[in-house]
Amino acid sequence: MSALSHTGFRAYFFAAVPLVQALWAQRVTIGWLAWDVSGSPAFVGLVAALGLAPSILAGPVFGVLVDRADIRTALRLTSGSMCLLLVIAALVAGGPGLGKTGLVILALAIGLITAAHHPVRMSLGPRLVPRQDVRNVVALSALNFNLGRMIGPVLTGIAIAAFGVVATLWLSAALYVPMLIAVRWMDPRDLPQGRRVSILNGIGEGLAYIARTPVARQALVLTFAIAVLVRGYLELLPVMAEGVHGRGAEGLGLLTAAAGAGALLAAVAKTAGAGQGGIPPITRVVLVCGVLTLTGLGMSQGWWAALVWTAIAGFASTFCGVGLQAAVQEDLPDALRGRVMSLWVVVGIGAVALGSGALGWLAALFGLMPVLIWSGALGGIVALVMVLPSRDWGAT
């Protein structure tokens, strides 16, 4: 908890707690609205995709802009824009109503603001503390995110049932206000003065840093590996719940809660653990075990076994995600944080999309359980080779 001893980060963190709740609230609310106006799973999927796609397509551009901008001004812009957007959504939903077109526009706008907010938050937090506390910043942020993932959807569902969608949108907007107030107490390190380059050259500088830095390069490769397989499976929980075990929506809720509990435990463990330079050996071990978890899932026919294995997968995904992000962030120059971390987001989101799509397609052909067995076994072998330090990747 050493990062919380610094006033600037403390202000940021405690304002980020309601902000993360707002992120989950708006995600659940918009998904509910998409289903309510269409009754179509395809439209719900489209709306969800529009909220993620801009982070892949525009994220690196925003990363360059964040590295040029005053970071506190950027935070005010992203948080204020999201707050204003939700106010407009609440007004429209309470008046003429948000139809399909309105929801598509809203989801795309949220996706664009989120694409800008990712490099802002990933750049700001580490600049509010000394470098030796950067790992603790990443772990605390993961703890906040996973608490939000467990609590936010539940509270949002209660709010929608009790007060309606419009009131929930107003509440989501209000949860951004603490961050707008807390900015005044944040004192990030100043960026060094440097020459201004074009957007493409700026992205190129981020890629060049990753290419020449062994720890960053390997961390991104390993992030891709665990995101494709383990997080890819976690996107297919509806198939496991209903398609394999016939447990319906209740089963999906239990599987989601199991994954969330594992992720929360991992975040707590990373918060309490001592920091190590580079990629710690325990992260490498957990990554291989996490991939092999898929084989355990595929071989287990019982419902309770599925819950346990899914919790382990959730633990491995978050434990490795936090450790790998911290490895990148620890020695990353402040002037490159926005660009490099926006590329990290692209790798993470893109890998999840690729993994869930590929696993889903293969599951449709051969069944989910055989696909999990073979992907876990083959992926485990590949992961084992990847995590071994090599002369080419450098000592990590």
UniProtKB/TrEMBL annotation:
Gene3D superfamilies assigned: MFS general substrate transporter like domains
Gene Ontology CC: one annotated term: plasma membrane
SUPFAM superfamilies, sorted: MFS general substrate transporter
UniProt KW keywords: Cell membrane, Membrane, Transmembrane, Transmembrane helix, Transport
Alphabetical list of CDD domains matching this protein: MFS_MefA_like (cd06173)
Topology relative to the membrane: Multi-pass membrane protein
Localization annotation: Cell membrane
Transmembrane domains' residue ranges: 12-35, 41-66, 73-92, 219-240, 252-269, 281-300, 306-328, 340-362, 368-388
Record InterPro entries: MFS_trans_sf, TM_effector
Protein's name in the database: Predicted arabinose efflux permease, MFS family
Organism: Jannaschia faecimaris
Lineage start: Bacteria, Pseudomonadati, Pseudomonadota, Alphaproteobacteria, Rhodobacterales
